[in-house]
Amino acid sequence: MNLQELLTVNTGLAWLILAALLAIAELLAPGIFLVFIAAGAAITGIVTLLVPGFDLVFEVFLFAAASAAAVALGRGWYRSNPVPSADPLLNDRVARLVGQVVTVVEPITAGQGRVKVGDGEWPANGPDTPAGAHVRITGARDGSLDVEPA
């Protein structure tokens, strides 16, 4: 085996070892992302072993392209197969507020005012309502809550 073949085999093995390390890292700290980068490294390692003689620059571009393709495929799969959640509104604070009855703290005049939500205040849009009145949150837009009389 000449030096070029030895370097090619070692480069291919290095990519496969990187893929294994990334897969192990994904198992230790799951984030559902390193697995796709590991797939890109594995593809690069396999191609490098099957077709020897690539420059390192080409291998890096192959790795980037394979990783991007793996991320795109994974993202598409996760979109079409959503993971069910016990609390689907966990990260959508405004959606969790819809339906709550809150108190107007600054009168809503000309369609704008402020309401007390929990221990904070939010800008509110809705019909003219005096301070102290109760309103129901119906939605939100542009950082303001849409309200209607309760």
Automatic annotation (TrEMBL):
<feature type="domain" description="NfeD-like C-terminal">
    <location>
        <begin position="95"/>
        <end position="149"/>
    </location>
</feature>
<dbReference type="GO" id="GO:0006508">
    <property type="term" value="P:proteolysis"/>
</dbReference>
<dbReference type="InterPro" id="IPR052165">
    <property type="entry name" value="Membrane_assoc_protease"/>
</dbReference>
<protein>
    <submittedName>
        <fullName>Membrane protein implicated in regulation of membrane protease activity</fullName>
    </submittedName>
</protein>
<dbReference type="GO" id="GO:0008233">
    <property type="term" value="F:peptidase activity"/>
</dbReference>
<dbReference type="Pfam" id="PF01957">
    <property type="entry name" value="NfeD"/>
</dbReference>
<feature type="transmembrane region" description="Helical">
    <location>
        <begin position="6"/>
        <end position="25"/>
    </location>
</feature>
<keyword id="KW-0812">Transmembrane</keyword>
<feature type="transmembrane region" description="Helical">
    <location>
        <begin position="60"/>
        <end position="78"/>
    </location>
</feature>
<feature type="transmembrane region" description="Helical">
    <location>
        <begin position="32"/>
        <end position="54"/>
    </location>
</feature>
<dbReference type="GO" id="GO:0005886">
    <property type="term" value="C:plasma membrane"/>
</dbReference>
<keyword id="KW-0378">Hydrolase</keyword>
<keyword id="KW-1133">Transmembrane helix</keyword>
<keyword id="KW-0645">Protease</keyword>
<dbReference type="InterPro" id="IPR002810">
    <property type="entry name" value="NfeD-like_C"/>
</dbReference>
<keyword id="KW-0472">Membrane</keyword>
<dbReference type="InterPro" id="IPR012340">
    <property type="entry name" value="NA-bd_OB-fold"/>
</dbReference>
